Amino acid sequence: MSNLKIMKNIANIARLCFAALCLLASAVAQAQSNELLRVAVSGVSHAHLNDVTSRIGRGDFKIVGVYEKDDNIRSHNGLSRHVDKSLFYSDLPTMLDETHPEVVVDYGSIYDHLATVEACAPRGIHVMVEKPLAANMKHARKMEKLAKENNILLLTNYETTWYDTNTEARRLVNEGEIGDITRMMVYDGHQGPFEIGCGKVFTDWLTDPVKNGGGAIVDFGCYGANIATWILAGQRPVSVYAVANRQKPDKYTRVEDDATIVVQYPSMTLQLMPSWNWPINRKDMHIYGSNGYIYQKNGKDMILYKNGKEKSVVSPELETPYNDSFYYLKAAVRGDIKVNPYDTGSLENNMLVVEILDAAIKSAQSGKPVKLK
């Protein structure tokens, strides 16, 4: 056999080996992706803990550890019926070191988010917190620094991220269906945490100006700031002006229960109306443009007005993993999807959200607009 033929055979064998290695690597990656996501829980006092309990056993993740510093709450919480006692810990670092989670989901107070990131980031453990990202800008900046230094995902979960209508509204805006946006009005809230029966464990910190960072402004103002930042692709506001009220001072003695926040951008105005005093539960939004408007009524129903006519819009259902917080979390942690800058859960988006909320609180206290640098 000639040297040329031998070299060709060697080259063919090398190509076959490389292809086989690629297939093997792909199979290994697929197998790893199919494995249950190892999730630990930090704090169990948040009413949104139901997001975890309602999905346990679904087949995409497993709880490997639960941390809660309060002895009584650690013994009596929504996860107690689903997770073995041996997986509950009173010390966060110990829980992390013994259970080795891929990601920690935080269901404690907003103030405690920083401590969770301080423990997880140096260990290379990703974190998803419930909205908003942080109780104040000081905490947010520390969390951002830790996440970037340790190359972890730091995600923020919002119920409204998984609304079909919000994604469809953004698509319609991006495709110019209503022209240039001139005004957005976002309404979020309910009758009040006491009125709708939120438990004492939750309301003890939710109505605390330190542990929650505020009242209705933080609890519900974050939704509209988050969606607007996403739709506007991270555009920075010029100023924030807010008026805060205590319409039920006998119930909410330490924080505001109602607010109106005007966020001014170079070419449009965002109006946020977070409240614990709506007569109904609401998470709806008006987007006005130069040629029409969108009314997002809830997660499924929406109205589009253009060319002098109003019509109902059927929003396409979001595809997996973009339709569920834990499907999304697994895909992001495993690298199956990319978290883009200013996506609703992204760090970039939620740093700006906290900045807007921080400015709103300062404005309500001073009675003057706060300019953003």
Task: Explain this structure.
The protein has 373 residues and is of the alpha/beta class. Helices cover 36% and strands 23% of the residues. It has helices spanning 3-34, 50-53, 71-75, 92-99, 113-120, 137-149, 164-174, 200-206, 216-231, 325-333, 347-366, and strands spanning 37-42, 61-67, 88-89, 103-106, 126-130, 154-157, 181-189, 239-245, 258-264, 269-275, 282-289, 292-296, 301-306, 309-314, 370-371. The strands form two sheets. Strands 14-13-12-11-7-10-9-8-15 form a nine-stranded mixed β-sheet. A six-stranded parallel β-sheet has the order 3-2-1-4-5-6. β1, α2 and β2 form a beta-alpha-beta unit. α5 (113-120) packs parallel to α6 and α9 packs across α11. It is globular, with a radius of gyration of 24 Å. The model is unreliable at 22-31 (pLDDT under 50).
Give the topology.
Blueprint: H1 3-34, E1 37-42, H2 50-53, E2 61-67, H3 71-75, E3 88-89, H4 92-99, E4 103-106, H5 113-120, E5 126-130, H6 137-149, E6 154-157, H7 164-174, E7 181-189, H8 200-206, H9 216-231, E8 239-245, E9 258-264, E10 269-275, E11 282-289, E12 292-296, E13 301-306, E14 309-314, H10 325-333, H11 347-366, E15 370-371
Parallel strand pairs: 1-2, 1-4, 2-3, 4-5, 5-6, 7-10
Antiparallel strand pairs: 7-11, 8-9, 8-15, 9-10, 11-12, 12-13, 13-14
Helix pairs in contact: 5-6, 6-11, 9-11
> How many helices does DSSP assign?
11
The side-by-side strand order for the widest beta sheet comes to 14-13-12-11-7-10-9-8-15
Question: In percent terms, what proportion of residues is strand?
Answer: 15-25%
Mean pLDDT: 94
Q: Quick one: overall form?
A: globular
Instruction: Give the ordered list of helices and strands.
Output: HEHEHEHEHEHEHEHHEEEEEEEHHE
Residue stretches low in confidence (pLDDT < 50, at least 5 long) are 22-31
